[in-house]
Design brief:
CATH superfamily of the largest domain: Isopropylmalate Dehydrogenase
Number of strands: 12
Number of helices: 12
Helix content: 40-55%
CATH architecture of the largest domain: 3-Layer(aba) Sandwich
Distance between the termini: 21 Å
Strand content: 15-25%
Radius of gyration: 20 Å
Largest sheet: 10 strands, mixed
CATH topology of the largest domain: Isopropylmalate Dehydrogenase
CATH class of the largest domain: Alpha Beta
Bound molecules: nicotinamide-adenine-dinucleotide, 3-isopropylmalic acid, manganese (II) ion
Structural class: alpha/beta
C-alpha cells in the first residue's frame, strides 16, 4: 500500500484541535481509498519557544525536507511571544525555504452556509505570492526611540518571483473559467506594482484565451463584497493576498471555512497545508473552533499527493455536514460535534 509521510505541526491555540480533527478525517479516508498516511508530530510552537528559546531547532528546515507534505495548524501566541518572533521563526521560513511560492486559497460557500452576503454563486480562487514582496523582511530602524526615528520596510519584487506566480495564476485560470484578476496598487506604488502590471501584460499576450483584468487592491476589496460572482482567479502580492483572503474567508462564512495550500509547484520540496486562520486566542480553550478550514486544507493536501478521489470524498463529507446545518454558524456547534458529523458522513 502506498504510504505518504506527513510532518504535523499543530503550533499554537486552536491549531491543536483543528489539526487533530483534520488528521482523524484524513486517516478515516485513507485506508478505504487504498493508501496509508503516517504522521510525525513536531512540537514547534510558542510553547516550544518558551521551553527552548527557539521556535524550531536549527536543523528544523532540513529535517522537514524528507516529508511528502506538511500539515500545519496555526502559529502565534502574542500574549507570551511577540508575533514577529514566532512567525519569522517558524511559518514564514518554511514557506520561503521550500519555495512554496503559490499560496492557493479557495473562497466559495459550502452547502447550507449562508455567509454575510446572503447570496452564493461565487467561486473564487485566490493565488497569493508567498515568498517575497512586502514579506521580504528587508528593512531596519534607525535612531530608535528618538523623535528622529525612521522605520523602513522594503518590498522586494523580482522578475523571477512575479513572473512565476503570474504564470501559475494564468494556468489556474485556464483550467477554470478563463478569467484572471491581477491585483496591484500601481496608482500609488510606482516601482513594484507598475513592474507587476507590466509583467501581467507581457504574459497576457502569451495567453490570449485568458481574459485578464487589472484591479487596484482597494477596488478589489469592494468588488469581493459587491460582485464576488464576477471573479474567477485572483492573483495578488504577499500582503495584498493576505488581506484579501481574510476578506474572502469572511464572505464564505468566516475564517473557520477558509483553507489554504502553500505549494511548491515544481515539487522540489514539500508543500504545506494549513487553514487561513490563526491560533484564535480568544476562543482557544472553548472547544468551539471550526475544524472545517483545517479539514478542507487536508483535502487539498490529499489532492496534491495524487489522492484526488479521497480528496473528493472529504469535500463531499464536508458538504454533507454543512448541508445538514452542522458547523454552518460560528460558535453554534462544538469542534468535536462537527468532526464527528464529517466522520459519519464519510462512513
Ligand atoms: P485569528 O485568525 O487567529 O482570529 C481572528 C478571529 O477569527 C478571532 O475572533 C477568532 O476567534 C476567529 N476564528 C479564527 N479561526 C476560527 C475557527 N477555526 N473557528 C472559529 N473562529 C475562528 O487571527 P488573529 O487573532 O489576528 O491572530 C491570532 C494569532 O494567530 C496571532 O499570533 C497571529 O499572528 C497568528 N496567526 C497565525 C496564522 C498562521 O499560522 N497561518 C494566521 C493568522 C494569524
Ligand atoms: C496567513 C497569516 C500569516 C501571513 C501571518 C501569521 C504571518 O496571516 O497565513 O494568512 O500573513 O501570511
Ligand atoms: Mn492572514
Amino acid at each position: 500500500m502506498k504510504t505518504h509521510n506527513i510532518a504535523i505541526i499543530r503550533g499554537d491555540g486552536i491549531g491543536h484541535p483543528v489539526v487533530d480533527a483534520a488528521w482523524e478525517v484524513l486517516q478515516a479516508v485513507a485506508k478505504p481509498s487504498g493508501f496509508a498516511l503516517t504522521g510525525t508530530e513536531l512540537p514547534w510552537s510558542c510553547a516550544h519557544y518558551k521551553e527552548t528559546g527557539v521556535m524550531m531547532p536549527a536543523d528544523g528546515i532540513d529535517s522537514l525536507r524528507k516529508y511528502d507534505a506538511i500539515l500545519l495548524g496555526a502559529v502565534g501566541w502574542p500574549a507570551e511571544v511577540p508575533d514577529a518572533v514566532s512567525l519569522h521563526g517558524l511559518l514564514l521560513p518554511i514557506r520561503k525555504a521550500f519555495d512554496q511560492y503559490a499560496n492557493v486559497r479557495p473562497h466559495r460557500l459550502l452547502p447550507g452556509v449562508e455567509g454575510p452576503l446572503r447570496r452564493g454563486g461565487f467561486d473564487i480562487l485566490c493565488i497569493r505570492e508567498n515568498t517575497e514582496g512586502e514579506y521580504a523582511g528587508a528593512g531596519g530602524r534607525i535612531h530608535q526611540g528618538t523623535p528622529q526615528e525612521v522605520a523602513v520596510e522594503t518590498g522586494i519584487f523580482t522578475r523571477m518571483g512575479v513572473e512565476r506566480i503570474l504564470r501559475f495564476a494564468f494556468a489556474q485560470a485556464r483550467a477554470r473559467r478563463g478569467k484572471l484578476a491581477s491585483v496591484t496598487k500601481s496608482n500609488a506604488q510606482k516601482y513594484s506594482m507598475v513592474f507587476w502590471d507590466e509583467i501581467t501584460r507581457q504574459l497576457a499576450a502569451e495567453h490570449p484565451d485568458v481574459e485578464v483584468t487589472s484591479y487596484h487592491v482597494d477596488a478589489m476589496a469592494a468588488r469581493m463584497v459587491t460582485a464576488p460572482e464576477s471573479l474567477d482567479v485572483v492573483v495578488a502580492s504577499n500582503l495584498f493576498g493576505d488581506i484579501l483572503t481574510d476578506l474572502g474567508a469572511a464572505i464564505q462564512g468566516g475564517l473557520g471555512f477558509a483553507a489554504s495550500a502553500n505549494l511548491n509547484p515544481d515539487r522540489k520540496a514539500p508543500s504545506m497545508f494549513e487553514p487561513v486562520h490563526g491560533s484564535a486566542p480568544d476562543i482557544a480553550h472553548l472547544g468551539i473552533a471550526n475544524p472545517i478550514a483545517a479539514i478542507w486544507s487536508g483535502a487539498m493536501m490529499l489532492e496534491h499527493l495524487g489522492e484526488k478521489a479521497a480528496a473528493d470524498r472529504v469535500m463531499a463529507a464536508l458538504g454533507d455536514t454543512t448541508g445538514r446545518g452542522i458547523g454552518t454558524v460560528p460558535g453554534k456547534d462544538r469542534t468535536d460535534a462537527i468532526t464527528a458529523a464529517v466522520l459519519s458522513a464519510l462512513s
